[in-house]
Amino acid sequence: MAEVDAFREMLPADELQLAIVEPKPLTVASGVSVKDDFFIHTPRKTIAEMIECRQVEKCIVMCTISAIETDMGWYYLSCKPCDKKVMYMPPLVAGDHEDDDLQRFKLYCPKCKSYEPKLLPRYKLHLVVLDHTGNSKFLLFDHLALQLVNQPCIELTVPITDEVQDPDVLPLALQNLIGKTYLFKVEIMRENFVYKHDTFKVNKIITNLAIINEFDTPKAPKEPSTQISRGHEYSVVSDAPEGSLMLLEEGSSQECFPSDLTPAKRRGGPAVNLEEEFDQNSVTKTSISTRVKKEKVDKSG
């Protein structure tokens, strides 16, 4: 096939074998999985607790998008090669020009130092979020907003020109985000609690519904551990009375009560209290020994 031949020509001629590398799970820079980062390593806060925080830190907030502000637009123009935001600058002046030439501005990329940058629109979303404790504003840049929208920004914008057009017009793909709940890893910065800046920057997002539900569900108490061996089944119940033992044998016709001590009703022998068994045995032995002693006394008389 022509495609196979073309692929072979692209391979290096070093006679090294190609290895199949499976994709690694999503991890953070420290090697911790994203789920562990959200569930274990980063403290969770409500919106009210986040606003009242008086130190620089990161936290996990589960909240719902209630609106998307468009006062400052929902995207910006960037330089495609370097990903940096372009700015308006006056053109370079060479020689004598009329005064009105200085009033004209052109888009300029400060990193590439180009007055004719190749433009690419990128997301910059200002979300209004809320939970049961209050509301706040989150700022999301392009790579995070893309996880929510699942569409590149250029697919939602009009043909690229020298300026952002119709910033108040919110595309349907962005309108569909309203009412949805996500997990946000938020950065509380100094300006948030010193200068009362009401917009918080988002560092990471989890959009997986199963993980969100797991995060929202309170942890249930662990079920009693069960050890299974051949011929017998032992149930170890941590909250059983001290000195008691429960032995469940297969094929027994009796049921063990109470049934709420084990995950399911099992067939087995009754629960035996060692202290009561010891007391009963002691009484029986005492009565037997007393009777024997009495008989000996009668014979002797």
Automatic annotation (TrEMBL):
Residues 255-280 are annotated as: Disordered. CDD domains: RPA1_DBD_C (cd04476). One of its GO terms (biological process) is double-strand break repair via homologous recombination. Keywords: DNA-binding, Metal-binding, Zinc, Zinc-finger. SUPFAM superfamilies: Nucleic acid-binding proteins. InterPro entries: Euk_RPA1_DBD_C (IPR047192), NA-bd_OB-fold (IPR012340), Rep_factor-A_C (IPR013955). The keyword Cell inner membrane does not apply. Residues 61-199 form the Replication factor A C-terminal domain. GO terms for cellular component: DNA replication factor A complex. GO terms for molecular function: damaged DNA binding; single-stranded telomeric DNA binding; zinc ion binding. The keyword Glycoprotein does not apply. Transmembrane segments: none annotated. Belongs to the replication factor A protein 1 family. This is BnaC06g10530D protein.
